[in-house]
Amino acid sequence: MLTILAALVAATLAKHSTCSWQPVTSDPTTYKLKHFCDAKSTVIDQNKGSRNWTCAHNFNGFKRQVKIADYSVLQPKVIEVGTPCGEGGWYRNEDGFCSSDVFAVCLSKDRGVATSCYFLSADDDCQWPGTFEAKDLPANITAWWQP
């Protein structure tokens, strides 16, 4: 019985993946995506160096704070991009409704580094490729959605 239960639990866990969906040009405006928000970085645990990128967004007159990504929470030195529409997703409105299927997240242009973007489907979440030292983290992560 325990073996069956363990197999069921393992099957229900989402497979973690590295962000990889990048069209020929990664500029979201090329694909008519609309700006959702500029998520700002805040330290959540000074000892671990972990951070969240959050922004306030107006959902039909109801403003709420959403987390787009985090750093060094699940794994050290890794940026994790949250799901737009999956459980607890950052794009879901106050009723849990999600009106888009395609999204993009981009690291900000700071320290002279060009914007780097990855696209996501509604229920995706992913880990940004590679690892980051704290000094190299972007100040902002920009989120986009397709109307």
TrEMBL record:
It comes from the Eukaryota. This is Uncharacterized protein. It comes from Jaminaea rosea.
